[in-house]
Amino acid sequence: MILTTPNLTQSLPTLPALVKSSTVFRGSKGNSLLAPRGVWAVDGRLMVSDTGQNRVFIWNQIPTTEYAEPDVVLGQVDAVNTGRNAGGSVGADTLQYPSGLWSDGERLIVADAWNHRVLIWNHFPTQNGQPADIVLGQADFTGSQPNGQGIGAAPSERTLNWPYGVTSDGQRLWIADTGNRRVLFYDHMPTESLAPATAVIGQPDFTERDYDSEHAIWPYSVRIGPDGQLAVVDTQYYRTLIWHDWRTAPRQQADVLVGQPDFGSNGQNQYGLFPAQQTLNWTYDAHFYRHGLLVADTGNSRILWFDTVPTQHNQLADNLIGHASFSIGSENASTRFGTDKQLYWPFSISTDGDQLCIADTGNHRIIIGQLTLTK
C-alpha cells in the first residue's frame, strides 16, 4: 500500500511545489520505526537509523509501499529485537542510539552516538548483525565511554563524546563530535581503529571543549557541498554555519550564518513568537542539493530551501517544505488536527539524484518524494 498525504510537503502557494509524489514509509510492519534520526539514500538504496530502537535498517531498493521488510539490520540480529547494544555488552555488531549516516554505496559509516564512537564498514553490509571493520573514538570495539575514559575525561585527537553526525567526500571524513563541541577532520578515510584526526574545527586544539559564540556550540550535523563548501548545523544556537571552502574551517570562523544575523545572536526564531523567512528553531541537519541548500528547521517542523548556498548572514530562504507559509511552526494552527498530515520534527535529509528522503522523526517515519527543481 502506498500512503500519500497532500500536505506533507507543502511549499509556498505562490511558487511551484518543491516536492511531488511524496509518500509515507514506516519501516518493518512487525516493528515499525521509532524516532528515526538518520536517513541516507545512495544508488537506489535506503539506510535509516532507527534511533529509538538501536538499529540501522538497509533496503537495497527505496521502498514504494508504507511498510517493507529490510534487507539488512545492523545492531540487532533481526528486525524484532531493539535493545541497547542488542541487550548485552557493546561490541562490533551492536549499536546504542545510532544517528548520522553516510555511504557511497561501497562503504557505510554510522555515528553510534551513545557508545561515543563512529563505526565504519569497509564493504557495504549484506548480513544481519554484520560487525563493523573499524571503530573511531574508542580503543577497541568493547569501549563505550565518553572520550574513552568516562565523563569528565579530556578529549584528544582520538576520542569522541556523543558524535551525532558524519560525512565524507569519498576521500576524507568529518565527524560532528557534538559533546566535545567540535568537528573532527580526517584527511583520509581511516583504515585502522582509534585513528587520530588530522585537524579540529571549533576548538584551538584537540584537548579543549569549552565554547563561545564564535564557533558551533552544539554541532549536530556536518555536510560537504559540491563546490567544496562546509556546513555545520549548530543546534543550540539555532543556526547553520557555512564555510565557502572546507579547507579554511580549522583556521577561521564560518563565512556565513544561516538563521542568525551575527555570531553573538542566539534567539530561538530570533526571539520571535512565530518563525519567519530567515529564522530557525532547533535545527538538526542541512543538505546540499544541486546549487542550493536544504536546512532542517526541526523545531518549526519544516525544511527551508535556498536556491543558492547563502553568501551573507541571515539570508532569506526562497521556499520551504512542510508549510504553506514562513510564519507557521510546529505548534501553530495548521497542526491542531494532528501531525500526521505534515512534517513533525524532521531531523535528517538526504537526496539520491532528485529523490528526497526526510527522517520525519516526530512522526516515526520517513517521507520519500521527488524534488522538482531543474536548475
UniProtKB/TrEMBL annotation:
SUPFAM superfamilies: NHL repeat. InterPro entries: 6-blade_b-propeller_TolB-like, TRIM-NHL_E3_ligases. Signal peptide: none annotated. This is NHL repeat containing protein. It comes from Spirosoma flavum.
